[in-house]
Write a structure and sequence with these properties.
The protein is an alpha/beta fold. It has two domains: 194 residues, Bacterial extracellular solute-binding protein, family 7 (D-Maltodextrin-Binding Protein, domain 2, 3-Layer(aba) Sandwich); 132 residues, 3-Layer(aba) Sandwich (D-Maltodextrin-Binding Protein, domain 2). Helices cover 43% and strands 18% of the residues. β1, α3 and β2 form a beta-alpha-beta unit. It is globular, with a radius of gyration of 21 Å.
Length: 341
């Protein structure tokens, strides 16, 4: 492959010896043999910017990625990691990769501003559990989503990380949709989320995350929904009693790189980067599972009670609102996701 040619998912697969049937994440990364031995050449420095802090599992996985790239290229490629929005907010990082000022980032459904299929990374009750998530991302739906992202943004998904399920917190236990009964709750400013909770019978209010604690404290809202990590870091346990285990959004996020920049690297270095991404994913999954278990224990220790809910009832009642909110362009892929066994 001409080292100056912009890389695509298919050409990258050929360059690292993968067969047909490309898929995102593990499938894209699978089938690799021993780490590549990269011939001596001038050192290349690449920048990875992301939003999380140093304690977040995404940052720890990014550090594994950087370390593995260095090892697998014999130090010829260095990845410098910049957490805490040091290189800009998520949209800035996406645009930075497109402009060539940033090389990698961790991003997800925000890419729907460019690639409509990226909206499917966080759809209520589309993903049932981690096993289903892996099958989706590594199968035909995931391949279509990743290829849409690469085609529309020139950002190449290198691997994917699981995200903590979103759960509903409140000051009364909620086990069924009927018990929402007009519950005043905060949701992010995502039209799909607003429609979903309205369909369930709640009264969702879009609100900046920074305002949620005060809103719960003064009674402007009575509930909110977020992953356990944010429930803990925002100290919602001080103003909320129950974690209702709706797990209504189980989603993933991509580690992406600029396809143009990657296309200019020698084939051996591209191979090493893909191998490093695979190692980062394995590290992130282990950390993610450990982190979710610890977060639940920490919140219980803070006095929160975990409530099992009828997830099937929530999914069934909310699905018409979800379907109505999806564009015609992505609806077929959504149906494929639901059909994955």
């Amino acid at each position: 492959m001409d080292s100056k040619t912009p890389i695509s998912r298919r050409s990258l697969a050929r360059s690292i010896g993968l067969g047909a049937g490309l898929a995102a994440g593990a499938t894209l990364l699978g089938g690799l043999a021993a780490p590549a031995i990269v011939r001596a050449q001038s050192k290349t420095t690449l920048k990875l910017g992301h939003l999380a802090n140093e304690d977040n599992v995404w940052h720890k996985a990014a550090m594994v990625f950087a370390e593995e790239v260095g090892k697998r290229t014999n130090g010829q490629v260095e990845v410098k990691v910049f957490p805490n929005e040091q290189l800009g907010k998520e949209t800035d990082l996406i645009k930075g990769i497109q402009l060539g000022t940033v090389d990698f980032t961790i991003t997800g459904e925000s890419l729907q501003n460019w690639a409509p299929a990226a909206a499917l990374l966080a759809v209520p009750y589309a993903i049932r559990d981690l096993d289903h998530l892996d099958k989706v991302v590594n199968g035909a739906p995931g391949r279509k989503i990743a290829e849409n992202i690469e085609q529309k943004t020139q950002l190449l998904p290198l691997t994917y990380f699981a995200r903590g399920p979103r759960n509903l917190t409140s000051n009364r236990p909620i086990k069924t949709p009927a018990e929402l009964n007009g519950l005043k709750m905060r949701v992010p400013n995502v039209p799909l989320f607003v429609s979903f909770w309205q369909g369930l019978g709640a009264k969702p209010t879009p609100m900046a995350f920074s305002e949620v604690f005060t809103g719960l404290q003064n009674g402007t809202i009575d509930a909110q929904e977020n992953p356990l990590a944010l429930i803990k870091s925002a100290s919602f346990f001080e103003v909320q009693k129950y974690v209702n285990q709706t797990e209504h959004v189980i989603s993933w996020i991509y580690l992406v790189g600029g396809s143009k920049k990657l296309g200019k690297l020698p084939a051996e270095q591209r191979t090493a980067i893909m191998e490093a991404a695979k190692a980062a994913q394995a590290a992130e999954r282990k950390l993610f599972i450990e982190d979710e278990t610890k977060l639940a224990a920490d919140l219980k220790a803070k006095g929160m009670e975990f409530v099992a809910v009828d997830k099937a009832a929530f999914a069934e009642k909310g699905r018409p609102a979800v379907v109505a909110a999806l564009s015609a362009e992505v609806k077929p892929i959504y149906d494929e996701i639901l059909a994955v066994g």
